[in-house]
Structure formats: C-alpha cells, structure tokens
Amino acid sequence: MKMITAIINKEDTRSVCSALVKGSFSVTRLSTTGGFLMAGNTTLLIGVEDEKVEACIEVIRKCCHQRTEVVPSVAGYNEYGPDVEPVEITVGGATVFVTNVERFEKL
Ligand code: 2BA
Questions:
Q1: Phi, then psi, of 35 in degrees rounded to 5
Q2: For the segment 43-54, what is each residue's pLDDT rounded down to a tens digit?
Q3: Theoretical Cys-Cys bridge with 48: which of 17, 30, 36, 52, CB 3.0 to 4.6 Å?
Q4: pTM (2 d.p.)
C-alpha cells in the first residue's frame, strides 16, 4: 500500500475530491499553507493499493490546473531601500509525494 500526499491549489479541491470519491478512492483533505506564498492551499492524503497509484495520480493530474501568480520580489536596493518588483511564478497543478505504508489498520 502507498500513501499519496498531494498538495493542490485550493480552487481545485472540490473537483479533485469529487473525482477521487467517484473513482472509489478514500481521501482526507487538510487546509494547509504554502511556505513561499504564505497562501492557503489543500493537502490531500490518499491511501491506495499499489496497483491503483497511477490511476489516482491521473485523476489528480486531470483536475489540477497550473496558475500564474504575481508576487513581490526584491530585485535590488536603491537609495530609499529595497527595490521591490513584481515577478510571475507558476504554481501547481499539484505537488505529489508517494510513500510506502508499512502498516494499515482500521481499528
Ligand atoms: P508555496 O510554498 O507557497 O509555493 C508556491 C509556488 O511558489 C511554488 O509552486 C513555486 O512556483 C514557487 N516557489 C516556492 N518556493 C520557492 C522558492 N524558494 N523560490 C522561488 N519560487 C518558489 P509549486 O512548486 O507548484 O508548489 C505549490 C505548493 O506545494 C507550495 O506552496 C508548497 O505548499 C507545496 N510544495 C511544493 N514543493 C514542495 C516540497 N518539496 N515539499 C513540501 N511542500 C511543497
């Protein structure tokens, strides 16, 4: 068994969770915060049998979209202090980790 940890844009949460449940995957969603943007995102925990890992990732891939965000960045310093310029970064679709589950029990 594997644990899939998927960090997704919170805008995609509803469609990903619906598609996962429709595909008979069990999913737990957590409200999380990205360390770089300090903005809310969603982390999904999905326990799956080894042979269903690819199918699960495919569902996530189909429902998660890349987005462009504009964030302030210090480009240098001028006589008044930091020279802040907006830069564009691409966020998502999804950051996915697949880890081995040593033991799984429902008690
Ligand atoms: P954030 O940390 O808020 O990062 C949002 C986006 O900012 C990232 O998108 C990336 O495009 C950019 N970014 C992040 N750190 C950066 C840095 N040090 N310098 C320049 N740009 C940076 P994604 O890569 O799609 O990541 C989306 C969210 O997924 C992240 O939100 C974070 O919550 C999570 N994440 C991504 N990689 C991770 C990792 N290796 N470990 C844990 N969480 C991760």
A1: -70, -25
A2: 999 999 999 999
A3: 52
A4: 0.90
- CA atoms of 107 and 91, how far apart (whole Å): 38
Which one, of 104, 106, 95, lies nearest residue 16 by Cα?
95
Long-range contacts of 35-39 (CB under 8 A, 24+ apart): 37/69, 37/71, 37/91
3-state helix, strand, coil in the chain (%, to 5): 25, 50, 25
Q: Alpha helix (H) ranges present in the chain?
A: 13-22, 53-63
pLDDT of residue 53: 98
Q: What is the CA(39)–ligand 1 centre distance, in A?
A: 11
Atom from ligand 1 closest to the CA of residue 90:
11
If one residue of 36, 45, 73 were mutated to test the ligand 1 pocket, choosing by the most ligand atoms within 8 A of its CB, it would be 36
Specify the 3-state DSSP secondary structure of 71. strand
